[in-house]
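Data availability (excerpt). The following record was deposited with the supplementary files.
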Amino acid sequence: MDGQRLLTIGEFARASGLTAKALRHYDAVGLLTPALVDPTNNYRRYDGDQLPTARLVRRLRELELPLDEVRRLLALKGEAQLTEALVEHRRRLGARITRLQRQLHDLDHFISDGSNDMSDDKSPQVLDPETERATAISLFNGVWDLLGKEQRTPDEDARMIHMAHASCYHWLQVGEPVHGARGEWQCSRVYAVLGRSEPALFHARRVLDICQRNGIGDWDIAFAYEAMSRAHAVAGDDDEAQRWAEQARAACAEIVDDADREIVLSDLETLPSPA
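Predicted structure:
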């Protein structure tokens, strides 16, 4: 404390922007403890060096971060980790805003209808498994038709994206993990063909994650590596693209069926060449 005068709880509260009540609570939960507590009267005294921490606590609480999360953030080392945590909190707030906007939209309809009937008449229509599986296959094949078209219009590019996502969604509903992996792979391929590296990488990582979590091997894991290579190539990261391409070629040795192995190897030949 270097001999500087300690601040009373009132002085510290005014300087930090926190209330005395909040400071007592943060002391009780071990979030922000005083520098000194007088054993005779339990008066709290704070060091001026604690002000930056107190102000950070105030700002994080104003952002509605839970106390446990504030405690965790105070223990982080470096601004990068703090920024990452705040980005995640922003994502949660965005989801909350979306939920509230939908509730407001529904409430407006109830008000405008002049009815007190709050029953839910908008139950989602559920496809039977056979129909959903057939839909997933039809959309998957439709994407391949568009991928093979030499001159696509912008509208067809957009339709191809939507069809790939829709196919993947239906597979995730009724298929096995391997079907979900193949759906994610097709999404990654569509974005790679369209030169969009960020979503291509996102879906390539999804393919790899599904395969690794579910012990999926053979040509599916080889195609997961291929997707990672292709997405990194689109992103301009030649070193990573080459690394994943080598893993894909090595994985081909584990493919049981000769025809399947040839399909993967042929596809690897279409990877973009390093710049």
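Summary of structural features: The chain is about 70% helix and 5% strand.
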